[in-house]
């Protein structure tokens, strides 16, 4: 690798998180941050005993304290992991999809479904959102219940203050696991629907669909990682995880550990008996409790899982 290639790579790594702010497919797209801020204003003005406006929105400790600094460092470090380790493998979703489509055509012949392309895209979108969410839940469940995986997932839970950027605070090993899940689930479902569409919908159209993500992000998904107690009506919290329910997931209290593991939908938690609703929780502190001191720097977050596993 020569010098100019190296500079290009470094630029690509640095630009990736900045591009997140400008990309509608990312949760921290500036428009979604703005709609989240408007929702936060709504919650703030409805809070009875509210702190000062400046303390609520512009706390220096929250945005620039040691926990937030770790979040920022991990965003850039994980960009490098994406560029070097993950990006080359994303194409596998395409191979898996085409492989499954070809396999069906060879074994059972061309699809005879006469569904319109609109119907297929709608059913595909719902299927991918629900199935992907289920596997996200399952992986998250294992991250909490298998001690070896928990050591890596602790990094996400070691945040003692939450900001929208905390969603990127994950150990590179977890990032890789999540991406493998994404590639396999997306590839497999796209393959099945590619077959059902019988050439009427292109693979590019399938992979570009994400209206549900748009709604999820637009409606304050960024507040999941924040101190803003946005709660839903109790019955809705059986179906969708509210921002406050995810904040309970980050609680340092033992009784809240391993609860609200869902990503978008709450019914997986209901099914697995791990759901807690907002109305049952009052005050929260975030983090791992006694263990926080082991994760108060960027390097400790990267190395602690290995150190603890080898001890
Ligand atoms: Zn978790
Ligand atoms: Zn979280």
Distance between the termini: 38 Å
- Please report the number of helical segments: 14
Shape: globular
- Secondary-structure element order, N to C: HHHHHHHHHHHHHH
Radius of gyration from the alpha-carbon trace, in angstroms: 21 Å
Can you walk me through this structure?
The chain is globular. The longest helix is centred in the middle third of the chain and has 29 residues, at 117-145. It has one domain (60-310). The model has no long low-confidence stretch (mean pLDDT 92). The relative contact order is 0.14. Helix 6 (92-108) runs parallel beside helix 9, helix 7 (117-145) packs antiparallel against helix 9 (172-197) and helix 8 runs antiparallel to helix 14. The chain has 14 helices and no strands. It is mainly alpha-helical and 311 residues long. Bound molecules: zinc ion (ZN) (2 copies). One zinc ion is lined by residues 156, 225, 246, 250.
Features:
single chain; 311 residues; mainly alpha; 0% strand; globular; binds zinc ion
Summarize the structure.
With 311 residues, the chain is mainly alpha-helical. The protein is 62% helix and 0% strand.
Strand and helix layout:
Blueprint: H1 3-20, H2 30-46, H3 53-58, H4 60-64, H5 66-90, H6 92-108, H7 117-145, H8 147-157, H9 172-197, H10 203-208, H11 211-218, H12 243-249, H13 267-272, H14 298-310
The site of one zinc ion has 4 residues, from loops.
């Amino acid at each position: 690798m020569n010098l100019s290639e190296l500079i290009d790579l470094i630029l690509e790594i640095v630009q990736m998180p900045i591009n997140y702010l400008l990309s509608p497919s990312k949760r921290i797209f500036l428009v979604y941050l703005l709609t989240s801020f408007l929702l936060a204003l709504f919650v703030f003005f409805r809070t009875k005993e509210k702190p000062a406006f400046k303390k609520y929105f512009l706390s220096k400790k929250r945005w620039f304290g040691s926990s937030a600094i770790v979040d920022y460092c991990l965003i850039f470090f994980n960009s490098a992991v994406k560029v070097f380790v993950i990006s080359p493998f994303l194409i596998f979703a395409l191979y898996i999809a085409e492989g499954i489509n070809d396999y069906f055509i060879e074994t059972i012949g061309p699809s005879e479904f006469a569904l319109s392309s609109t119907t297929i895209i709608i059913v595909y979108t719902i299927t991918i959102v629900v199935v992907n969410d289920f596997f996200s839940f399952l992986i998250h469940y294992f991250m909490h219940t298998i001690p070896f995986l928990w050591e890596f997932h602790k990094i996400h839970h070691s945040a003692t203050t939450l900001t929208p950027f905390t969603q990127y605070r994950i150990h590179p090993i977890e990032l890789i696991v999540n991406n493998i899940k994404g590639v396999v689930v997306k590839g497999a479902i796209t393959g099945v629907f590619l077959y059902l569409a019988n050439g009427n919908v292109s693979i590019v159209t399938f992979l570009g669909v994400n209206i549900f993500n748009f709604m999820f992000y637009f409606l304050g998904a960024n507040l999941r990682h924040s101190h803003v107690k946005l709660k839903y009506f109790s019955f809705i919290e059986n179906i969708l995880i509210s921002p406050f329910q995810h904040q309970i997931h980050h609680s340092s209290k033992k009784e809240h550990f391993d609860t609200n593991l869902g990503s978008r939908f709450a019914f997986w938690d209901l099914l697995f008996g791990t759901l807690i609703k907002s109305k049952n929780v009052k005050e929260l502190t975030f983090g791992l409790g006694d263990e926080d001191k082991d994760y108060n720097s960027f390097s400790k977050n990267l190395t602690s899982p290995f150190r603890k596993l080898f001890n």
